[in-house]
Amino acid sequence: MASDTAEFGLHRDIVLKGTVLAIDPSSGSYNRKTGQSHLGYALFTAGELVDSGIIEMDGKNKTIWERLRDLHDCLVRDFTPPDVLVIEKIRGSFAHDYLKFGAATVGIAIRAPVTLEMNISTWKSRAGFKSNTSST
Predict the structure, then answer these.
(1) What is the pLDDT along the chain (136 residues), one digit of tens a residue?
(2) Apex 37 CA angle, 78 and 131, nearest 5
(3) Environment class of residue 103 by beta-carbon count within 10 Å: exposed (0-12), middle (13-18) or buried (19+)?
(4) CA atoms within 13 A on the CB side of 89
(5) 128 alpha carbon, distance to own chain's centre
(6) CB 19 within 8 A of CB 105
């Protein structure tokens, strides 16, 4: 398996010139009290942040499989496939299986030509992306 840096280097041109959708499935996890799930996203065009926010999912009284199906439907409905999809790398014994399922659902729903799995906190600095604080 290639390192994050090597994988990113293979696709640097399309990342900096095309559209990139980054999804962070762990930005907010399922809350049993409220029944809400939250995923963070950021959309970049030619290296500039053009949109970001939270995808809120109502999962009250739903099984994990129903919530994943809803997530899939939301992503297909609300996002145009980008040139590159970046999904947070979720590994290790501390990563909950449902979080891994969510990351896999994102990858299946967003049919980008290039999908990169890497640490969200590090991929932006490698690309040299600029944050546009006026976008929400």
Answers:
(1) 456 667 777 888 888 899 999 888 765 555 667 666 777 888 999 988 899 888 887 777 788 888 888 888 988 999 999 999 988 777 666 567 777 788 888 888 898 999 888 776 665 555 555 554 443 3
(2) 60
(3) buried
(4) 15
(5) 18
(6) no
Q: Which of 94, 121, 118, 123 is nearest to 107 (CA)?
A: 118
The region, left, alpha or beta by phi > 0 then psi within -120 to 50, assigned to residue 80 is beta
CA distance 4 to 23: 16
12: alpha, beta or left? (left if phi > 0; alpha if psi -120 to 50): alpha
